[in-house]
């Protein structure tokens, strides 16, 4: 349990729309904490497709880099498949950049979107196994009941 803005990692994951604008109140709060420099770093020249992931600097955050996962655009509604593609893209970008530690909130959670258990399962399912990836994923939540749920989902995946 932690506040994503203060997590020490090589990068944090941030859910965004096709313009890299925040898609949840939590991501909007993160943007405010990241400051004006971060707002300038995340400007895009043209809209990105849902399922994409890009890396920018972290502005005033504790981490130097942010992995933006595009889970919403005008053409494609947010759903399980879009979140899966965006997370897979994020892990590819993390490998490209040689990121050893990545911290992520539950991506895609919200009214009419994914539930916390489904979001935790997608993070666990899409992150490459240790044999294929030297990196480590920390799932960051802000409530005890979410921490317990995430721990249970990850434990089930390990089997």
Describe the protein.
By secondary structure, the chain is α/β, with parallel strands linked by helices. The protein is 38% helix and 18% strand. It is built from 4 helices and 5 strands. A 5-stranded mixed beta sheet has the order 2-3-1-4-5. The longest helix is centred in the middle third of the chain and has 18 residues. The protein is globular. The protein starts with 10 loop residues before the first strand and ends with a helix.
Secondary structure class reads alpha/beta
Largest sheet, in brief, is: 5 strands, mixed
Summarize the helix and strand pattern as letters.
EHEEHEHEH
Q: What is the distance, rounded to the nearest whole angstrom, between the alpha carbons of the first and last residues?
A: 23 Å
Question: Which SSEs are present, and which pair or pack?
Answer:
Layout: E1 11-17, H1 25-41, E2 53-57, E3 65-72, H2 80-97, E4 101-104, H3 116-126, E5 136-139, H4 144-158
Parallel strand pairs: 1-3, 1-4, 4-5
Antiparallel strand pairs: 2-3
Helix pairs in contact: 2-3, 3-4
Question: Would you summarize the structure shown here?
Answer:
The chain is an alpha/beta fold and 159 residues long.
Key words describing this protein structure:
five-stranded mixed beta sheet; 159 residues
